[in-house]
Each structure stands twice: as structure tokens, then as C-alpha cells.
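Hi everyone,

Forwarding the result from last night's run.
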Amino acid sequence: MFFWWRKPRIHYYAPAWNEELMLPFLFRHYAQWVERFVICDSDSTDGSLELLRRTPKVEIRKVTWTQPDSMITSLQDLHNTCWKESRGTADWVIVADIDEFLHHPDFLGYLRTCRRRGVTCIPALGYEMVSDRFPEPDETLLSAVRRGVPHRMMSKLRLFDPNALEETNFGPGGHVAEPAGNVVYPKRDELLLLHYKWLGFDYLRRRNAMMETTRRSRDIANNWSHHYRTSEPDLASGLKHLLQSSVDVIELGEAAWRGHKEGRWWRGRKKAA
């Protein structure tokens, strides 16, 4: 039985490949809430594995390429299955990518409120975060990179009750989902998903070039993750545009979710509480 006043037990799952730069920010953000991290590594060649081995509460797994001709569908399979082992041991799971940070000013308080109301699935409203530089190693991303732009494709289901769902049925990239089971969404969407990819031109250029090497034949045929092929001039132009149109998401507070007008794929599908 879950008692709403105790600290919820949260497990975190994510795939990773050469994320040495981002992992410290991830743990700094989530360690205060998450009791167990399961990181599925895909043969990293940087310092990621060494960092993971010396980080408390971390379990390292290996990514299985269930679909040898597709990186996207292999990760889709992973996201749809990895969390099931937390049934009976966690109140909530976070199933995400390393550069996706869930944010609410009162994160645990919000989870307790959702639990009291019977909510089992908490989609997050997406913001594409942007900076003209990569943050310093000892900074926190929410302090160093505060500006962002609402982004419909980054509004995802990344937090849910593993005991209530039978399946998540994430689509490619997790941009939509068709969860099955006792699916109850909150009546009001307050959770944010802050996507930290546009962290200066040099980081973005190098990361895109590296991730392009993971695409397989079916990914290319379906044009999945085609943004990894964006030219350097277009990257520079995109970065400039995002910076000019961005707002301070953290300073906005409630206005960040109240003013998020992008489409929400989950609305009108299931009951809300």
C-alpha cells in the first residue's frame, strides 16, 4: 500500500552512448528524488562507463539491438520493456533519454498530489532548451541553461506508475504513446520536459555527427532522426533563431505550463483526475 505522505520510490531508466559530458548533470538533477538508476549503455568509448561505475545507485546494463536494421526501433523496444522490472518495487518510473530533464518547482509534492487523485500517467510539456555555450562541469543545467522554446515533439510520457500500466506502447522516439492498463492523466498538465540538446554550436555539431553514425538502414529509409544530418550553416541559423525566440522557462514558473499552447497528443484519449 502507498502512503501519500512518505517519499515516493522512483526508478529511472535510460539508454546512453558516450554521454560523459551530460551524465554529471543528470545525476545532479535527479539524485535527490531517484532511488535507483538503470543506465543501458551501448558500448560507450568515452569515459561514461567509468563515471557510471563510481556513481551511487547506478546499475549498468547493455543495450540490445533487437532490430539490427534500426537504432530507433531498438530503443523503442527498450523504452517499452525496461521499466516492467520495477513493478512491485517502485511507485513511479522515469523512462527517458539522458538529455531529457523533468521539472516541476515542487516535484515530490506534485507526485503526491497526483497519487491522491489517482493519476497514473504524467505526460510532460516539452521545451527545447538553448544556450550559446556548454555549461561548466560544476553547474546545474536548470541554473546554467534557463531559456527555452515550447516544442510539441518534446511533449512526452516519461513518468508513470509501473504498477498501473500493462504496456506503454511508445512510438518512435517516444513522441507519442498509447499506454494500456489503468491509464489516468492529470486534469492539468504542470510537469515540464526540458530537452538539453542545443548547448552551444560546438557541442551540438559534434553530438549530431556522432549520433548520425548510429542510424541504420531502416532509420534512413524512414527518415528517422534525419536532424542529425543538419548542415553546419543550418545548425548555426537554428541556434540563433532559438536564442532569439527563447524565454526564461524557470523564471516563468506556472506560466511555463499555463502558457504552453503546443498540441498535446494525450488529451481526449483517457480519463483525467
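The CA atoms of residues 176 and 238 lie 24 Å apart.

Cheers,
N.
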